[in-house]
């Protein structure tokens, strides 16, 4: 039973980390766009 729960928790954790990675990637891309706009003006 605990083995089953551990697998469930790991899957949930992996989904969360993937979501966090996507969020940080989008954030970095937006920051880069923002700074290039400022530097070009």
Structural summary, described in words:
This protein is mainly alpha-helical and 41 residues long. It has a domain at 17-41. The chain is built from one helix and no strands. 0% of the residues are buried.
Helical proportion, percent range: over 70%
**What is the residue-mean pLDDT, rounded to a whole number?**
89
Bulk shape: rod-shaped
Briefly note the structural class of the backbone.
mainly alpha
Element string (H = helix, E = strand): H
Sheet with most strands: none
- The low-pLDDT segments are none
The number of distinct β-strands equals: 0
Number of helix segments?
A: 1
Separation, N- and C-terminal Cα atoms: 61 Å
Which value, in Å, is the CA radius of gyration?
18 Å
Quaternary organisation of the protein chains: single chain
Strand content: under 5%
Brief summary:
With 41 residues, the chain is mostly helical. It has one helix spanning 2-40.
Features:
mainly alpha, 1 helix, 41 residues
Indicate the topology.
Layout: H1 2-40
């Amino acid at each position: 039973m605990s083995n089953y729960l551990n697998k469930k928790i790991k899957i949930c954790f992996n989904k969360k980390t993937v979501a966090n990675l996507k969020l940080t990637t989008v954030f970095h891309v937006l920051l880069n766009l923002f700074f290039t706009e400022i530097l070009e003006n």
